[in-house]
Design brief:
Elements (H helix, E strand, L loop, with lengths): L1 E8 L2 E10 L4 H12 L6 E12 L1 H16 L3 E5 L3 H9 L7 E3 L7
Parallel strand pairs: 2-3, 3-4, 4-5
Antiparallel strand pairs: 1-2
Helix pairs in contact: 1-2
């Protein structure tokens, strides 16, 4: 698993994830993402899943928590670059209506 955070504007952070995001890798990712979401001035986070090979329920739970933290400060979370597997996992969890899913978009669009 690899995580890269990039501040693309004063209020936006893009999170590039790569590899498997599962119960073993989620704790480290979660700490970094939540710390970033709680930063003063952050109003939007974009999570780029284009290079994620696998996503499990722990990863989905982490994304829900990230969405909640951002929503508390009237922020937004966008998921971009979803592949078939990541989209399926979110839909199986019945959370596709909760997230702003943009499977074809990249973090730059």
């Amino acid at each position: 698993m690899h995580l890269q955070l990039e501040r693309t504007s004063p209020g936006e952070i893009v999170c590039y994830l790569q590899g498997t995001v599962d119960r073993q890798t989620v704790p480290a990712i979660r700490r970094k993402l939540l710390r970033s979401a709680r930063e003063t001035g952050v109003s939007q986070m974009v999570v780029d899943l284009a290079k994620v090979s696998a996503l499990d329920t722990a990863a989905v739970a982490m994304l829900v928590e990230l969405l909640r933290v951002l929503a508390e400060k009237r922020g937004k979370l966008r998921l971009v670059g979803l592949n078939e597997q990541t989209t399926k996992m979110i839909r199986l969890s019945r959370l596709d209506a909760l997230f702003h899913l943009d499977p074809h978009a990249t973090s730059g669009s």
